[in-house]
Write a structure and sequence with these properties.
Shape: globular
Number of domains: 2
Strand content: 25-35%
Number of helices: 12
Strand order of the largest sheet: 11-12-8-7-1-2-3-6-4-19
Radius of gyration: 25 Å
Length: about 450
């Protein structure tokens, strides 16, 4: 058993800093780099890509990234774990092998975790009594089953552990939880009993700290953000994990950003709901039990974490087609910028009413005034310019298309001093809605596949 392992965050979402994983690999010693690419909407995007091309459906940033990481991995012997396989982890695996062959790299093992994609089983589940009820409304997925774009089960750390046990250097998964990517190497390296729920909880919380990349090391920091040093060269967080369950959050030396009690604590309360019941496939973590202690510069110890047994359910992330939306923008200049923008909004709404267009929702923002704070925005006497941004949503595609033809006419038939119209008429885009559900763990099973070249 190792005395400790270093698990480095490499990506917090698809589109995060491309250089981050390379800097984690080259900035010091690490044992694992974990990269989280997936969000609920990402799965639907990937599924649509796969429907157009069966070789797609994964984060396409990964192969060019691995072209840079593989030689470093050969030298420094760290492992990579990522859920960037999306809805097609096998194609992602094949693409990485092609990169390895191009580089002349041999004896590379890649593990694949799959079985989370249940899109083609929805009708069978519903007809068999598993209704996949919406966790917020209680409605059965029957009402959306013909509009579903993607459906993926959130698996936990266990199948990733199995890939590591079979010697995988890289593990590519589908919808494995963000936290499971970090917990898995702790279970594997330290031989943790997966029924020791305190240990499962501390590994889960470490994963929660790492999952958003630089957000735990000074990025997007609501505290004293002005004094966070050198954000241009931010160092992503690293979890030093110990067999007894202690975790130290740190970052590589000579990198920007900040690891402090404040930055770590702010990440801890990100998207957790009830802090006593942070539910994952591996455990229920009690965030009220967490102790944090600053033990050195950019070193925060996390300890004392308590956990409870996991539930008998997996969460399912379902996305479905729910109509169309479109947005238009016009910029109004001083003087009377806000007054002009408000008048233009009223004119546009009246014209759409006169056309008998049907919308489920019309939303207006006056950017530069209330786009962030809405009704809480303070009145400002003089504003240099205001961007009128108006959006519509409807199941009637014609109404959304017609809305797009009413933006440009406002330039010459509405208030004066307008600019900022470019790129042609706004076009309708599909609304992808989210349907969270639960499924009995007995109904689905994660699978793994490990291959070597």
């Amino acid at each position: 058993m190792k005395e400790k392992i270093k698990i480095a965050s490499g990506q917090g979402f698809w589109g995060d800093l491309i250089e981050a994983p390379v800097k984690q690999a080259t900035g010091g010693d690490v044992d694992y780099i974990v990269m989280d690419y997936l969000a609920e909407v990402t799965m639907s995007i990937l599924q649509k890509q796969k429907l157009k091309d069966p070789l797609l459906g994964y984060a396409r940033d990964i192969p060019p990234l691995m072209e840079r990481l593989l030689p470093i991995m050969q030298e420094k012997r760290f492992k990579v774990i990522t859920n960037g396989g999306g809805v097609n982890p096998f194609s992602c695996k094949d693409a990485i092998f092609e990169v390895a062959k191009k580089l002349g790299i041999k004896k590379l093992k890649i593990g694949v975790v799959f079985g989370d994609d249940i899109l083609n089983k929805i009708n069978d589940f519903i007809s068999g009594g598993i209704e996949l009820k919406n966790m917020e409304t209680g409605e059965s997925a029957r009402i959306i089953k013909d509009k579903i774009l993607s459906a993926n089960v959130y698996f936990g750390a266990a199948p990733v552990v199995e890939c590591l046990k079979q010697g995988a250097d890289i593990v590519i998964t589908g919808r494995v939880t963000d936290t499971g990517l970090t917990l898995a190497p702790m279970i594997y390296e330290f031989g943790w009993d997966m029924n020791n729920f305190d240990l499962m909880a501390v590994g889960t919380i470490a994963g929660h700290i790492l999952e958003c990349g630089g957000q735990a090391s000074g990025g997007n920091f609501l505290g004293d953000w002005k004094n966070v040093p050198d954000l241009a060269n931010i160092g992503f967080p690293i979890a030093e994990a110990y067999p007894n369950g202690d975790i130290i959050i740190t970052k590589h030396e000579n990198t920007g950003g900040l690891v402090s009690i404040d930055t770590v604590s702010e990440q801890l309360v990100y998207e957790i709901g009830n802090p006593k019941d942070y539910i994952t496939p591996d455990c229920i973590a009690d965030f009220t039990s967490i102790h944090v202690q600053e033990i050195g510069k950019n070193r925060v110890k996390v300890f004392g974490v308590k956990g409870l047994p996991y539930t008998p359910f997996y969460k399912v992330s379902i996305s479905f087609m729910d109509g169309y939306t479109s947005f238009g923008n016009l910029t109004y200049s001083w003087p009377d910028a806000l007054e002009k923008a408000k008048a233009a909004d009223k004119i546009l709404r009246k014209r759409m009413e006169n056309l008998n267009l049907k919308f489920d929702e019309i939303r207006t923002e006056f950017q530069g005034y209330n786009a962030c704070h809405e009704s809480l925005a303070r009145e400002i006497e003089e504003i240099n310019e205001v961007v009128l941004r108006i959006g519509v949503r409807s199941k009637d595609k014609y109404s959304v298309e017609r809305f797009g033809k009413e933006i440009a006419p406002l330039i010459l038939t509405g208030p004066p001093g307008v600019t900022g119209f470019a790129g042609g008429r706004p076009k309708p885009s599909e609304v992808v809605a989210y349907w969270p559900a639960l499924i009995p763990k007995s109904a689905v099973k994660p699978e793994i596949f490990v291959e070597e070249i």
